[in-house]
Amino acid sequence: MTDFTLKGRHVLAMFVLGFGTIIAVNLTLAVNAVRTFPGLETANSYVASQEYDDRRAAQEALGWTVEATGESGVAAVALVDAHGLPADLRDMQAVIGRATTDDGERVMPQTGRAAAALEMPEGYWRVDVIATAPDGTAFEQRLTLHVTP
Predict the structure, then answer these.
(1) Can you tell me where the transmembrane regions are (predicted)?
(2) What are the distances in angstroms from CA 16 to CA 13, 20, 26, 99?
(3) Neighbours of 59 (CB within 10 A)
(4) pTM (two decimals)
(5) Using 50, 70 and 90 to split pLDDT, how confident is the model at 2?
(6) Distance between CA 12 and CA 65 in Å, rounded?
(7) Domains annotated on the chain, with CATH
(8) N or C: which end of the chain has fewer CB within 10 A?
(9) What pLDDT, in 10s, does the model give residues 54-84?
């Protein structure tokens, strides 16, 4: 056996080394997090909020709603007007993908003037519907759709 005696300086060195490692790792992670996403979505949030309110009011004035179904392995969306008829629009695009990532997103082929459908596996999917009215008013809606087998 050796004649090693644990002394105060050994305990101090263990604490400094242990906590120093933890602090160094935390600082590294924090610096990388801020460098890769600074959290800035817009330069002027007030102006962006005013523009958002204007776009929302114009979209609501259209009176359109999105009807979505996910039965028999088919995800389907339809854009309808206030009377339940297909919306009168210039163009429409529906993009479907997983709710937690943008990887693997697919554009749903149109099945009618204001409708789109695509065979999808069972599960929860995020659908982004983007359309333009004949007068140029933009319509955007994101919804979650459950597709059943």
Answers:
(1) 12-34
(2) 5, 6, 15, 43
(3) 17
(4) 0.67
(5) confident
(6) 66
(7) 64-147 (2.60.40.3760)
(8) N
(9) 899 999 999 999 999 999 999 999 999 999 9
Q: For the sheet containing 115-119, what is the strand order?
A: 65-71, 74-80, 115-119, 110-112
Confidence tier at 1 by pLDDT (50, 70, 90) = low
